[in-house]
Design a protein that fits this description.
This protein has 286 residues and is of the alpha/beta class. It has helices at 17-24, 44-53, 63-71, 118-130, 145-151, 164-172, 195-200, 202-217, 225-232, 240-246, 256-268; strands spanning 4-10, 33-39, 58-62, 76-83, 88-94, 109-112, 138-141, 159-163, 176-183, 189-194. The longest helix is centred in the last third of the chain and has 16 residues, at 202-217. It is globular and about 60 Å long. 42% of the residues are buried.
Length: 286
């Protein structure tokens, strides 16, 4: 069988378990796709850069991050929603911090993985919801969750937004304390592909999407799904059942309304200079 190689990246989090297992079970190779997955713990900002510089063909990444980056010139398009449910961003401080309420964080320093990352953009969403002045936000780049685990206790930053289930072990260990949760106002994860790859390997991209959609459509109903998740992410074992209940994978194209909503937020937060035509950002259902 002729094999088409596709490189794809994503964060090493439980949302991407269907990719790991579909690859392990050879679902892609059986359909002529040599799918080469790479974990990127630095998150969406780093992933956007990889799409820009051509070190990956496709990516699973945060909706708001890739919408912003395409609006700023990333030569890619969103081809599908991957997780339809919102991402639940925990608002964390150091366990021994004097902060006890979210409103006390105004004018303090937010740890972020990098500029353009989900942790960066969601800090703006939190600020907007809290009524803080957006031009008075302060950021400290810590690169990864491990970087935040160092920064907050040593007062190099004051608070940190990261997915609440991934950070639960850090809370349990007494490193972070969670003040609340900030959900995304849109579906959390999408699949994006570089325009050059769409032009050259459209059939392979369509096959990749068909295979992962077949897998995710029945993923939650697998008898061994919870043991599988616990084996892959043992540190999160206490919260994975709850996480699975609130997570919904998608097999659908994005909608124009979704793209407009995200751009409206980004424009309101001055994170993009102007809205661009939705067709430049995504491929919609015919």
């Amino acid at each position: 069988m002729f094999m088409t190689t596709l490189r794809i990246v994503g964060v090493p989090e439980h949302f991407n378990t269907p990719w790991y297992n579909a690859i392990e079970q050879n679902h892609f190779t059986q359909n002529g796709i040599d799918l080469q997955w790479t974990d990127v713990p630095e998150g969406t900002g780093k992933i956007c850069q990889m799409l820009r510089d051509g070190t990956t063909d496709a990516a699973v990444l945060l909706t708001e991050g890739i919408v912003r980056d395409i609006a700023l010139g990333n030569p890619s398009k969103i081809v599908q929603v991957f997780v339809a449910s919102p991402l639940l961003w925990g608002i964390h401080v150091a366990a021994k911090s004097t902060y006890t309420e979210i409103d006390q964080l105004q004018n303090s320093r937010a740890a972020i993985s990098r500029f353009g990352s989900g942790s960066h953009l969601m800090t703006y969403v939190l600020a907007e919801q809290q009524g803080w002045l957006l031009d008075e936000l302060h950021f400290e780049c810590v690169h990864t969750l491990d970087g935040a685990k160092q920064a907050l206790p040593f007062e190099e930053a004051d608070y940190f937004l990261w997915e609440q289930f991934m950070t639960q072990p850090v809370v349990d260990e007494g490193i972070f304390r969670r003040l609340g949760v900030c959900p995304t106002p849109w579906p959390s994860f999408v699949i994006a592909v570089r325009n050059e790859v769409l032009a050259q390997k459209q059939e392979a991209v369509d096959t990749m999407l068909r295979v992962i959609n077949e897998y995710t459509s029945g993923f939650k109903n697998q008898e061994n799904v919870l043991p599988l998740l616990k084996a892959t992410f043992p540190k999160q074992h206490k919260v994975l059942a709850e996480w699975l209940m609130v997570t919904e994978w998608s097999q659908e194209r994005p909608t124009t309304e979704m793209i407009i909503t995200v751009q409206d937020w980004l424009l309101k937060m001055a994170l993009i200079p102007e809205k661009i035509n939705a067709n430049q950002l995504a491929i919609f259902a015919e």
